[in-house]
Amino acid sequence: MNDLYAWSAIALIILASTTGDVLLSYSMKRVGDVGELWQQRGIMAVLARVLTTPTFALGLMAMAVAFYSLLFGLSWGNLSLVVPASASLTFVANAVAARIFLHERVGRRRWIAALLVAAGVALMAI
Amino acid sequence: MTFRKYLVLAGITIFSTAGDSLLARGMKEFGGVNVSLHNLPSLLLAILNPWVTAGILLLLAFFTCYISALSWADLTYVLPATSLAYVLVALIGHFRLHEVISPTRWLGIMLIAAGVGFVAAGPSVTPTRHRESSPDVAEMES
Predict the structure, then answer these.
(1) Which of A18, A103, A124, B52 could form a disulfide with B108 if both were Cys (CB 3.0 to 4.6 A apart)?
(2) Where do the structural domains in chain B lie, given as residue ranges?
(3) What distance lies between CA A49 and its chain's CA centroid?
(4) Residues B100, B104, B108: CA angle, nearest 5 degrees
């Protein structure tokens, strides 16, 4: 039973953190290159533009959900299951989501990288 | 990719590693208090611990680097850079704290490093019609 709880927490972590990363990435692409914006209009313009992007706040909320799911997951399952499983599967989920929702060109190079990093993270945490 | 952009990516790795370790050190010093929503006051007190404060400041620096990298690079380009933090933690543990790293973990380190190398050698951003053309876009199309 606890296993079921742990895996549902893992699923929630993956879902929430992928949603958060995609929303943050989408928001920052809309804001534009912050380095250029800072040079041209100053730091306040950067802050104003980031904070007035509605999807940025949604992304932060999704990140908060992911963080609390991690806390709950850790209370139901083992550290050595929850952390590597969620971290490495999030890498793969992000590659899929970035391709579908952000229309990023995820070529063979990036697929291989996502799988290598996911496997590496899983091994590191064992 | 300019030198400054590589510095921002390095910032992601370094600030998240340093932030996490300071936070962990602070929370351990804070004691084995069971941190949960039931003892929220003690959680608020933890912020007063200098290690925790420093850790939070560094994690804020990490977040700033992370979102600014996302403003000019793809998510699938930035994320592997963040995973270098795992490698950095292990290497610091090995060389500074003389922790033993098992063969499995060394293999994990090598896989992550290989993955990061794969991504870093490729283009950093997908060109879009909506964005103005930047040197990075030209770099991708070449």
Answers:
(1) A124
(2) 3-141
(3) 22
(4) 105
So what's the ipTM on this one? 0.86
The reported pTM is 0.82
Taking CA–CA distances from A35, the nearest residue in chain B reads B68
Q: Which residue segment(s) compose the domain that A32 sits in? A: 2-125
Instruction: Please check whether residue B101 is in contact with residue B94, taking contact to mean a CB–CB distance below 8 angstroms.
Output: yes
Residues A49 and A55 sit within 8 Å (Cβ to Cβ):
no
Residue A126: DSSP 8-state: -
Largest alpha-carbon pair distance within chain A? Answer: 57
Highest mean pLDDT, choosing among A24-28, A45-49, B18-22, B123-127: A24-28
Q: For chain A, which residues score pLDDT lower than 70?
A: 1, 126
Structure tokens at A26: 């989408």
**Under an 8 A CB cutoff, do B67 and A24 touch?**
yes
- How far is the alpha carbon of A68 from chain B, nearest alpha carbon, in Å? 11
Q: How many domains in chain A?
A: 1
